[in-house]
Amino acid sequence: MKETKEAHSLLDTHLSAAKKVKTSSWNGWYYTDPQLWRSQEFALICRHFPDIASRYGYDDLSPITQPITEGRFNTITAAHTIMALKSYSQLAKKSDVKLAIRALPRASENPNCWCRRRVVC
């Protein structure tokens, strides 16, 4: 949108409505999965609202990454998650945002093993 004020107004309306939607359950249906619209929303904000996305932190990114770490994804949600993370990394590259993605092993796991499942490393 070329009208910044109207675009921000639409985004604010969408974000406030999205907060009211219960999205804790994963249904696994391709186009109705909450992870799909969260990823689309995240990518759109990163691409078109860099002023908002540059303030994003872990809490804003976790709805995108948490389903992947829990193994709750399908082909389309994985693709949209990649699109969202790519948009975020492009924003970081353009605006000098410091970006790091890490995984910490659980206390009971081998600290040298990065894999999530119990596999011999």
How is this structure best described in words?
The protein is mainly α. 57% of the residues lie in helices and 0% in strands. The protein has 5 helices and no strands. The protein has helices at 4-20, 34-48, 50-53, 58-69, 75-95. It is globular. The N and C termini lie far apart (50 Å).
Secondary-structure element series? HHHHH
Beta-strand fraction estimate: under 5%
Shape: globular
Distance between the termini: 50 Å
Radius of gyration: 16 Å
Enumerate how many helices there are, as a single number. Answer: 5
Given as residue ranges, the uncertain stretches (5+ residues, pLDDT < 50) are: 113-121
Which class do the helix and strand fractions yield? mainly alpha
Chain-wise SSE layout:
Blueprint: H1 4-20, H2 34-48, H3 50-53, H4 58-69, H5 75-95
Helix pairs in contact: 2-4, 2-5
